[in-house]
Write a structure and sequence with these properties.
The complex is a heterodimer of chains A (about 375) and B (about 300).
Chain A: H1 2-17, H2 19-39, E1 47-53, H3 58-69, E2 73-75, H4 82-91, E3 96-100, H5 104-109, E4 117-120, H6 125-146, H7 152-156, H8 176-206, H9 208-214, H10 219-248, H11 257-281, H12 285-302, H13 314-322, H14 324-338, H15 342-369
Helix pairs in contact in A: 1-10, 2-8, 2-10, 3-6, 8-10, 8-11, 8-12, 8-14, 10-11, 11-12, 11-14, 11-15, 14-15
Chain B: E1 4-15, E2 18-29, E3 33-37, H1 44-51, E4 59-64, E5 67-68, H2 73-79, E6 80-83, H3 95-105, H4 111-122, H5 137-149, E7 155-159, H6 167-182, E8 186-190, H7 194-198, E9 202-207, E10 210-215, H8 217-224, E11 227-232, H9 238-243, E12 250-254, E13 257-262, H10 265-278, E14 282-286, H11 290-302
Parallel strand pairs in B: 3-8, 3-9, 6-7, 7-8
Antiparallel strand pairs in B: 1-2, 1-4, 4-5, 9-10, 11-13, 11-14, 12-13
Classes of the chains: A mainly alpha (about 375), B alpha/beta (about 300).
The structure holds adenosine-5'-triphosphate and magnesium ion (MG).
């Protein structure tokens, strides 16, 4: 016990003295939060749009006013000619160009399926995806209002634009509510595995490991003494992320915070055990770093953080089910957004515990071996 | 019965398929300063690590401080002070924090007091808040020695403790080692310095993992049985020519002189006499140095 405390004290002093690393451990979550929360927006709104209307009808007026009421479009002053409008699109002043041809309303009423032209700056397909879906919905609405009464028979026919709102098939549609809690798991995974891996590899690289092992301490005392400080770091990160998520991004915290913090502990220990296992395999800090990324990439790609989990092929889902991050994401989203209780969380908590048990067993076995 | 602090037989260790220590037998008496010599990569560090339980031998058995080297490594660690070849204290901790950490790891009763006394004795009290990494080589070595003496070990294992340390600091270091040994501490020290080897009570010389010679410095000289002649008047470029003479095994320049040695004394002397007849040189018999003896041993080891 005495020796465990001695190792703990040493680790805390070293951590405090390595200011840059400590700053990174608190700074990385803040930076990532801001990036993912503000900058990387996969559902961009207020896209600059121009409308060139060759007729001034009830329909065109209705469509334009519907578009300016929508969050997605930022209507620019109507360009005088079609050439001027094209130039705006070319220069990137607008992302959308909607053209309503002459006699559109007349042809529509006659059932001649007139064309409504939409030109999109598709250099970033992601940026325009949702706006496109929104636009076709607006058009359909405007058409439906136009074709009332005796003309409703026409409305039943296929409209000029296919109505497809992709969002409906993407229930885990990526929004900040979804990303920010997920980011907590991603950040914990990265910093914990990397820092513990580095901390032990550093001792080996600098030759201080030999000294540590030559002292009369049990491997368990050294291991626990080295890992516990990172639990504290993890809780600092969780506090930062949760506060920012709630107060900056307005992510609701609907479930129980103590339950969440308890699940965080299970997840943190799972990651620390991975870091420990890696550090027993790595000969130096560089290798520890590489192994971290080896584990980190599948974690963000296959856990449901990047892509909707159910949308992945079966083999990818199988890999995902093994990863701690997958389960932690479900737990966090469940608790924060769906008010999950202990019973709801359990199906994702036990895989974390099993994972930890297996990895700790492997790590402890290797750790004893590294005396050689 | 003699009291052996280290008494091991047949210690063997390989890394992969590379045999690094090959059947090492070692006996060190209580209170002895035992020198451990051998060329780079001969397995000195590996042997020392096996003695203090950092490495598990592949084969062999024996005791260290009366404890079984294979089974009792945990207890051995409590009673051994091991100074590693490379400075292995934490450079991002201060001098005081390093000492305190060592004191707490060894579960000393009054870590604060022991650390304070040690700092005082080292003359580092005023610099105790300095990071260990900012110390010069000589001070690092003093700190490392002090730190592994904190828990009053009964056996000190020093792995090249004076590499890169100035002559004055080395002399002080050895004075302290001798003082400790007089108080009954046993010291096993590896070194590449011949003057240090001469200060040891006994020596072991290993090469390629094998023990080639063991005994007092005089014993070793006698075992190797080398004859050495000092030549005067030979031009410096005669080294190659002399080296090809029958019976000559080593030619080493010593200032303006050349030391020529070989184990077959008669053959060597005859060759030199013939060479002196045709060249303007004179030669006289001198005592072989330990260095000559070790180089001869190493050559012999190569052909094993
Ligand atoms: N952990 C290890 N893994 C693989 N090979 C090793 C290991 N430790 C030592 N060796 C090899 O064993 C041989 C002996 O090394 P050792 O450090 O014992 O030599 P040494 O006598 O202390 O040398 P030096 O005088 O240079 O310190 C070397 O060839 C070294 O490369
Ligand atoms: Mg060595």
């Amino acid at each position: 016990m005495h020796r465990l405390l001695a190792v703990l004290a040493k680790e805390f002093i070293q951590m405090r003295r390595d200011r840059l690393t400590f700053a990174m451990m608190v700074g990385i979550p803040i930076m990532q939060l801001l990036l993912f929360g503000f900058a990387i927006n996969t559902d961009p709104k207020h896209l600059p749009t121009a409308v060139v209307s060759a007729e001034s009808s009830e329909f065109s007026r209705r469509l334009i006013s519907a578009m300016s009421n929508s969050d997605y479009f930022d209507l620019q002053p109507a360009p005088p000619t079609i050439d001027a409008a094209r130039q705006m699109l070319e220069r990137g002043d607008v992302l959308f160009l909607l053209r309503i041809p002459a006699q559109f309303s007349r042809d529509l009423v006659r059932g001649q399926r007139p064309q409504l032209l939409i030109e999109i700056d598709a250099t970033d397909p992601v940026a325009s995806g949702n706006a496109m879906a929104a636009l076709s919905a607006l058009v359909d609405q405007a058409i439906a209002t136009e074709l009332k009464g005796p003309l409703s028979g026409l409305a039943a026919r296929a409209g000029p634009i296919e109505l497809r709102v992709q969002r409906r098939y993407n229930p885990e549609g990526i929004t900040q509510f979804n990303i920010v809690p997920g980011l907590m798991g991603v950040i914990l995974t990265m910093t914990l595995i990397m820092q513990t891996g580095l901390a032990i590899a550093r001792e080996r690289e600098r030759g201080t490991m030999e000294n540590l092992l030559a002292m009369p301490a049990r491997p368990l005392e050294i291991m626990i003494g080295k890992l516990v400080p990172y639990i504290l770091v993890a809780y600092i990160q969780v506090t930062v992320i949760l506060s920012a998520a709630h107060f900056v991004f307005g992510v609701p915290i609907l479930g129980s915070i103590p339950l969440l913090l308890l699940c965080v502990l299970a997840f943190v220990i799972a990651n620390l055990s991975v870091g420990l296992l890696f550090s027993t395999l790595a000969k130096n800090q560089m290798q520890a770093m590489q192994m971290t990324f080896f584990f980190f990439l599948p974690s963000i790609l296959l856990s449901g953080f990047m892509f909707p989990f159910r949308g992945m092929p079966g083999w990818a889902q199988n890999i995902g089910e093994v990863l701690p991050l997958t389960h932690f994401l479900r737990i966090v989203r469940g608790i924060l957004l769906k008010v999950n209780g202990p019973a709801d969380v359990w199906p994702n908590l036990w895989p974390l515990l099993v994972f930890t048990l297996v990895v700790v067993a492997l790590g402890a076995k290797r750790f004893r071996k590294t005396l050689d | 019965m003699t009291d052996y602090v280290i008494d091991v037989r047949g210690l063997t260790k390989s890394f992969g398929d590379k045999l690094v220590v090959d059947g090492l037998d070692l006996r060190v008496e209580r209170g002895a300063i035992y020198g451990f010599l051998g060329p780079n990569g001969s397995g000195k560090t590996t042997s020392i690590r096996m003695l203090c339980g950092l490495l598990t031998p592949d084969a062999g058995s024996g005791t260290c401080l009366g404890l079984d080297v294979l089974r009792d490594s945990a207890t051995i660690k409590q009673q051994v002070g091991y100074m590693t070849q490379k400075f292995s204290w934490w450079e991002d901790l201060t001098i005081e924090e390093n000492l305190r950490f060592a004191a707490r790891m060894h579960q000393l009763r009054e870590p604060r007091k022991v650390v304070g006394e040690t700092l005082e004795r080292l003359g580092l009290t005023s610099r105790r808040r300095q990071l260990a990494g900012s110390l010069s080589g000589g001070w690092k070595q003093r700190l490392a020695l002090a730190a592994c003496l904190l828990h009053q070990p009964r056996l000190l294992l020093l792995d090249e403790p004076t590499a890169g340390v100035d002559p004055k600091a080395r002399r002080d270091f050895w004075a302290e080692i001798h003082a400790l040994a007089r108080n009954g501490l046993t010291v096993l020290v590896s070194t590449h310095y011949m003057d240090e080897a001469e200060r040891c009570h006994r020596l072991a010389y290993i090469a390629y993992g094998k023990l080639l010679a063991e005994g007092t410095p005089e014993d070793i000289l006698a075992q190797v049985g080398l004859r050495t002649f000092s030549l005067t008047g030979a031009p410096p470029d005669a080294v190659g020519e002399l080296g090809r003479l029958a019976g000559v095994e080593q030619v080493v320049p010593f200032g303006l002189r050349l030391h020529v040695s070989g184990s077959k004394a008669d053959l060597l002397e005859a060759s030199l006499r013939a060479y002196a007849a045709t060249h303007r040189i004179s030669f006289e018999s001198v005592e072989s140095s330990l260095e000559d003896a070790f180089i001869a041993l190493m050559r012999g080891g190569e052909s094993l």
